[in-house]
Specification:
This protein is α/β, with parallel strands linked by helices. It has 14 helices and 12 strands. Helices cover 45% and strands 13% of the residues. The termini are far apart. One of its GO terms (molecular function) is isomerase activity.
Amino acid sequence: MEPVSADAVKARLATQAIETPSWAYGNSGTRFKVFAQQGVPRTVEEKIDDAAQVHAFTGVAPSVALHIPWDTVEDYGKLADYAASAGIRLGTVNSNVFQDDDYRLGSVTNPDPRIRRKAVAHLLDCVDVLDATGSRDLKLWFSDGTNYPGQDDIRARQDRLAEALATVYTRLGDDQRMLLEYKLFEPAFYTMDVPDWGTSYAHCLELGPKARVCVDTGHHAPGTNIEFIVAFLLRAGKLGAFDFNSRFYADDDLMVGAADPFQLFRILHEVVRGGGYEPSAGVAFMLDQCHNIEPKIPGQIRSVCNVQEATAKALLVDTAALAGAQRSGDVIAANDVLMDAYHTDVRPMLAELRAERGLDPDPLAAYRRSGYAERIVAERIGGSQAGWGA
Ligand code: LRH
Ligand code: MN
Ligand code: MN
């Protein structure tokens, strides 16, 4: 059997695009404490500058996701121009209907129609932002849910959710999409209104082709087989995006690939296997992590590189050998094929790829040497929070 050639893998890796989140560059923490770091951005433009650094050193992070209202500006067209002049573009627009006192009992699923209208109005405003920035995707995550049995009518909340989603869906332009993200628990602890991929999938199916599921890798119960979800959604044409991060316990938002690099590889193997790596599949690779204790930009660089490494390994899987072993029912040989790819040290290949593209083979070391970190500490006084504690 012909092993996969390094050149073929490098050619495919050269087309990868991993989006970083604007909120990763601001101060962050947990509900116990937000830690202030020196040199963090004071404005949306400075978040874009930092995201541009991640792209400059990795070559595979050409866009930054916005979070509204954390990244509210007067003129989003101008912001898009600013991003272009910094060498990147604005990506997914994340809505936020979870930080207003009105949303104590929910946003789009709130029993009060006035509050539902307010939440939907925000989501529609976010579609205006898509129009202005030229971005394709609106990401929806709802903190809606209940804490106590009997608190509200679970079924009625699904109806309200469906109605709100349909209103937003109708407003989408031809080339725009909505990504519905799910989360098992938190901030609600008895029911979440979109707790899992099945709920998200069912709503997206009802809505139509412009609605797809977003898989945040930290939003599942421990032990959940995420690669199965990926395979299923890809087969159904409903995988829209990833929010990559690492978790040891729940929604930990740690650096991608830090907790379980093997799981990351298994997920990317299913992405490649299911055609999700082809640009035409429309699967957006995004990071969703807020670094609490590590420096922001190096943390993003590390995460981007970890996604790239796992992708390289997934692209190295000898698919013919795998299919052969599967056909003949050779369980051990089939497993060997996957493990061979996983155990391959792809770092020299990635270093080569970067050098071929005029980049430093070691993005983290190059960033550290660049002096950017010292410059922003000197220039930026009183940086902003990511938004969680705001
Ligand atoms: C919710 C979430 C969602 C938000 C982001 C800040 O836990 O994953 O994607 O928009 O965090
Ligand atoms: Mn997320
Ligand atoms: Mn999350």
